[in-house]
Every structure is written in C-alpha cells, then in structure tokens.
Write a structure and sequence with these properties.
Length: about 120
C-alpha cells in the first residue's frame, strides 16, 4: 500500500508513520511538509500511485482546503483522502463532506482506531 502524508508538522508525520506501520505491513510512505509541494509532485506524475492520502488542514501557504480544490482538478486517478487535523471547528467536518475524495475526517493525533477504520474500508492487512 502506498500512502501520501501531507502535514507541516514533521513530528506528526513521524507519529503517523510509526502507528500505521505497526498495524499494516508492506507500506510505502511519501511525505510532504508542504501541500503545494505535494500537489506539484502529483501534477508531475503520469498516474496517481497512492492508495490513500492523509491530509492536514492547517498549514501555511497552501492549506488542506486549497489542496483539495486543486487536487480535484487533476486528471490523475483520485486517491481516498483522510483528513487528519487539530482543527476544533465543527464546520470543517461538515465542509469535508463536500469533497467526494474525502473518505474520513479524524482529529489529531492519529489513533489506532482511526487506522483500523482506514484499513477496514480498504481491506488492507
């Protein structure tokens, strides 16, 4: 399984990678601390190679919402996006439902039950 993680906090990336790796074998991670850099990377790919994308919302320069708007415009196959955020704004969860690619909305930090939900929805082990 290939996972793209986008979060401006490197510690959050590390924690997420470690937790997911404990539950799922055969993983490949690609990480970006900038949504703009991740988008550029995806634009340059001939085909989207990721099974899932874990996306933070609150990032400088390009936030998660901006990323989602641009991501939807790409002609590549769309990955399932899971928002992982520290936002306490309940409107964010409602807003996430407006994006067809968003399959889940989770509060930080990543927890084992969130990973289990992602695994179950993708039948990954």
């Amino acid at each position: 399984m290939k996972v793209l993680m986008i979060d401006d906090n490197e510690l959050d990336l590390l924690i997420s990678r470690k937790l997911i790796s404990k539950q799922v074998s055969q993983l490949e991670f690609t990480e970006f601390t900038s949504a703009a850099q991740a988008l550029t990377y995806l634009e340059e790919q001939q085909e989207n190679e990721f099974d899932i994308i874990l996306l933070d919302l609150n990032m400088p320069e390009m936030n998660g919402w901006d990323f989602l708007e641009e991501y939807q415009k790409l002609s590549v196959h769309k990955s399932n996006v899971y928002i992982l955020t520290s936002s306490l704004d309940t409107r964010d969860k409602l807003r996430s439902k407006e994006y067809e690619v968003v399959k889940g909305y989770f509060d930080k930090p990543l927890k084992n039950n969130y990973i289990a939900e992602i695994i179950d929805s993708h039948q990954i082990h």
